[in-house]
Specification:
The structure is a single chain. By secondary structure, this protein is mainly α. It has seven helices and no strands. Helices cover 64% and strands 0% of the residues. α1 (13-38) packs across α5 and α3 packs antiparallel against α4 (83-91).
Amino acid sequence: MSQPCTVYTHPRRRTLYAAEYAADRHAHDDHRIERLIRRLPEHRQAPLRWLRSPAARWVRLPLGILFLLGSLLFILPIFGLWMLPVGMLILAEDVPMLRRMRTRVLDWIERRRPHWFSEHLAQIPHRRITDKEETT
């Protein structure tokens, strides 16, 4: 007769599950961000994809900090509070606490504006309006 099976959970096991869950959420965020990027005009998509790549970390960190500092100068005409969320989104690629905030913001946007993430609209090519089209 065989011995009864005992279940032993290692104390670090929960940490592994939490890390797997966080990696899964990060991949889900990447998918949602990619869909938002696909909605942009084509000439803006490539720089954003490059900025999100791991090789661009040396550009991403100073750029995010500059955006945050620029948001403090919101009383000047060019600078504004719009720079605060942009800087936080840029830094969210590298800072885990900001990544969790980005996940919450993406969840909120997905609930409020689900059509922003739809695959159908993301594949519609953007057209530039020429001078002839504007006058007619």
